[in-house]
Design a protein that fits this description.
Shape: globular
Helix content: 25-40%
Structural class: alpha/beta
Strand content: 5-15%
Oligomer: single chain
Amino acid sequence: MFLKGFCILLPLVFTILLHVHTTTAVYRGMNIGGWLVLEYWIRPSLFNDNGVTSNVGEWGFCEQLGSNKASQVLNSHWDSWVSYSDLQQLASNGITHLRIPVGYWIVDIQPGEPFVTGGMYYLKRLMGWAQQLNLGVIVDLHGAPGSQNGHDNSGRVGPINWPQQQNIDRSVFVIGNITQQLIGFTSLKGIEVLNEPWTIVMSGGTITFDTLKTYYLRAYNAVRGVGFTGDIWIPDGWDNNQWNGFMAPPNYYSVYIDVHLYHCFGGPRDQNDAYANIQYTCSQDQPMLQSLTSRDWSVVGEFSNCVSNPASDFNSWVTAFDKAQWSAYGAAGPNPGSGPAKGAFFWNFKIEGGNALWNYQAGLNAGTMPSNFDFSGC
């Protein structure tokens, strides 16, 4: 009888152990993109006004301008692109956390690399502002040595050279160094050890999951090794089937798996009818996230309202779509975060021009973004 009862309880005990976290906050987050890692489409004037080719990443930007000019332009950009009033607006409208993309060059520039120094000063300034406003910060290694995806958002456009051992070793050093420099800020709530690695499940992807998992274990130890006890995020590598039981307690704690869900880059999530995207979010994505119970908790680190064919009644549609996503991803509703999905981060807090597809501030000004999260969108 005892053995039978033990066997019945064992799966429950395992599930509880799998989800041991030092924090239980629901993430209602905002990405601060285009700031410490340049992306042309977010702030094209920075490239155009300085005669820099579009979509070359920060490496190409600095290479084309040269060190002195790049330093002048970037320090001005870092000083102005995100302000204290921007963060005040986010905090006053229910946002609880910020995700800050950074590149490895914020702490480590080697000879022959065109990047310029200075970004860490502005990151620490933001950490202080967030501390004053009671905003939590997730610092995300968006650009890794050698480039983990070959896209401009990694800092350098071109081949995916991150899997080379010297680049992985350097990434471990970088993530520990960044954490050590920021650990004194109470606003630091999480570290994401990599962003959007282009794994073998993606077209042109070269990164194996064995390589990725080995790095995650080393990065976890580097972050914990400097005394950080908060959340550690690992990206899913575009495959939900890789992570059951990985980095489970009691040896690991407060690990979140980052899932990015977009509706405008092809695949089944990219629905031709605008309103079908809302249906897909509630009927497909919400139960998919709720089903991920045999692994660490999930967080949607990036989503937007971008679709291939926005509705003609734009404001009504985008309001409903935005609310559906916040709800499906565990950030809103009557019991937010009650399942394995613990919230989401909209991309992006602002872009030059644009509307609520990508621009949170524009959507807020138009009344299409929520000012609280009491609603249930699904």
